[in-house]
Structure formats: C-alpha cells, structure tokens
Design a protein that fits this description.
The chain is α/β, with parallel strands linked by helices. The chain folds into two domains: about 120 residues, Pantoate--beta-alanine Ligase, Chain: A,domain 2, CATH 3.30.1300; about 260 residues, no CATH class. Helices cover about 20% and strands about 35% of the residues. The strands form three sheets. The chain has a 20-stranded parallel beta sheet that branches. The longest helix has about 45 residues.
Amino acid sequence: MIALRLIMPRFGNAVSGLFATIRKQSIRLRADRRGNVSVLAGFLMVPLVGSMGLGLEVSNWYLTKRAMQNAADAAVIAAASNGSSNYDVEAKAVAAQYGFVNGSNNITVTASNSATCPAGGNTCYSVTITTLVPLFLSPVVGYTGDATLNGGAAKSIASTTVAAKGPTPLPVCLLALASSGVQGIRTNGAPKANMTNCNVMSNTSATCNGHNLGATIGAAHLTNNGCGITQKSNVAVVADPYSGLATNIPVNTCASYPQEPAKKKDPALPASNQWAGTKTLSGNVQVCGDLELTGNVTVNASSGAVLVIVNGQLDTGGYTLQTSSGSGLTVVFSGDNSGSYTHAPTGGGTLDIAAPTSGVWKGVAIYQNPSLNSSGVDISAAGNSPTWAITGLVYLPHSSVTFSGAVNKSSNGQSCFALVVDNITINGTGSILATGGCAAAGLALPTGSLPGRGQLVL
C-alpha cells in the first residue's frame, strides 16, 4: 500500500505531462499551415496536367494548320497558273512537296476550278487540305475531339485557300475588233504568212487553215482554231484604244469633193488634188475629194503633219508617197457615209511613210475616222496595191481587209507596225516583217490580257 501510494502521484504527473504535451503539439499543429500547399497541389494536379496537355496539343494543332496553309497556298497558285485540265494533279504534287501527300497518313488534298471568287463568279481555283491528329492529354479536361482515329478520339484540321488567274499583258500587232460580229481573223488555203514576234487577237473567233501565221501568240475571245504558235481561246475582248483620236480631226471646210474621172467626159481633178515632187507640210492639211499622185512624192514634215482626205481616196497611181528622213505623216480618211466615196489608199504604187513620233497623232500612220462605218472603207488588196512600207499604226476599225502583201518598215522609220481592222482575211504570204521599234516610233501597241500566274484572293 505504501508502495502504491508512492507510485500514484508519479503516474498522475506523467499522465498530466503527456496530455499537456499533446495539447501543446495540437496547438502547434493547428497553427502550422505548411502542409496546405501539398494538399491543394494534390487536388489541382489533375486539372493542371489536363490544361498543360491541352495547351501543348493546341500548339501542335496550330503548327500543323500553319504548315497546311502554306502547302495549300502554294498548291492553289500552281493550280491556277496551270489552268489546264490537269490542274488538280499539279496541285496535289505541290502539296506533296510540303509533306502533305493525298491519301497518306490520314491526309486528303482536294482541288477545284469552280470555286466562288470574292469579286463574284465561280471561276476561281481552290485547294483544301485536311488531316486527323490523335488526342493524348486533352481528354483529361473533358475534350473528346470531333473525329475518330483508330478507335480513339481525334481532332480534324483543315486549311482552304482560293486563287484566281492574274492578268498577263498581251501587246498585239494585229487586232480584229469585229464590231460587225463576224469572224475576226481567217486565212484561206494554206498561206505561208510570217508574223514572227507579232501577237494577233480577234474579238470574236479566229480560224487559220493550213498555217498558224507564224504569230507568237494567237488569241480569240471565242474559239481560236489554228492561229498562232501558242493558241488561246476565251480571252477577254480588247477595247478599241484609238477611237478617241477622232476628236483631233479638224472641222470639214470642204465645199465639194472632186472625184477622179470615171469616164472620159468626166472633169479632171483640180491641180490641188494632184501631187508630184516634194511637198513641205505642217499641221493639218485638208484635201477635199480624191488625192492622186501624178509622180513620186516626198513629204517633208519635220514637226509632223496630218493629211486629212475628206470623202476621197489616196490613189498612188503606181507612184511612191514617201516621208523624208526625220519627217512624220499621218494620213486621215474622213467624211460622210453617204455616196460612193472611197476612204482608203488605192493604186499600184508604194506607201513608204513613217508616223510622227510626237504630238496627238504620234505613232499613227493611217487613220480611218471611226464614224465611217458603211461603204467605202473596205480594202481588198492591203499590203499589195499599193505596197505598204509603213512605220506606225494603220487603223481601219470598220474595214473588211484582205491582206496579201508584206509590210516592211518605212525607209526612214523604225521597225514598228500595227494593224487594227474590223475583220481580216490573210491570203498567200501576208507578212508583217521584223518589229520591235514601236517605243522609238511613238506607238503604244493595242494591248489585251491573258490569264497568267495564279494570285491568292482568299
């Protein structure tokens, strides 16, 4: 008993000390927050890993789409530039060079030549590249994708781009305006024409039988059948670039229009309508009625001159009308649509003229007023009767022309020639010889456009 009494106080003290220690440690534990971060981190680990995974996958999707867009851009430009029936083959080949092979690794490449253009119409080209990429970490946050790949969730990625044909300028030395609606260019038989370095264009159709004219490019708004070394159909119409020059034709001051005698009893032309020898001209010179050469004529016109023949022809009569060195001449045919007037050069001689290189008529050698649209404007033996040695433009907008000669440059002019007609028939060896000097001659050639390299539009 004595021993028990001795032990109990000690045991009580120990128990009291233990509870005091526990209480003290509990208070310290309650105040200690260092473990909270670990607990919170544990709770947040799942969404954090999911978000990081989604971020990585979204970045991968962006990089993949960017690479696909580059491939689609290059492919659609190639397709539009190709423009032929195998445009889709070229588009897929270009996409493959960027690593997107149609039918491989879940990749699809499609091309179209009837896509809607931003400016309207459905003549644009499009290329669409699609692929599937598997999902790895993004499902952790609940994203299950929009496709299935090998039984698992996947994301579909696509890139589409649109291109149109860009215009390529087409300067032409022979333009058939065809405002009458007939076929613009045609050849009979098998002419051996030589139009090297010359492009030809018809605003309707063109047919060349047996020979392509030797023209570098033959183009037609409708169907081109055989004209040109390179042949183009469905080309945009070329607007008449020279009709506005008619405003520079001086006012008609003629009281009468003498014509060459058709019968012995008819009166002869007045002396003012018969030319021979040297003529010094400047500004506008008006001749009323026919102008006949009775001998070779040399025109001196250092500042350029305009010879306006009103209701009459220029009959070379077997002689030569020539501009001297440094001179420029424009022959304008104007007048009325009524009567039996001829508004064209005739005769068996030679027109050896160079157009002025400056002024409003620069580059224009012969000009029929576009208001002359009925009789007397056709030419049945152009380049042959008279022979043409011309530097500059011959503008016959309502004329049906039969062309059978060879047009060389003027003796005193640059190598430059352009012919604008309503329609033309080329026979035999109709030729436009070496060209290339139009800039120096002051002539801006009529220019159309061909579809060229593709250009991105969307």
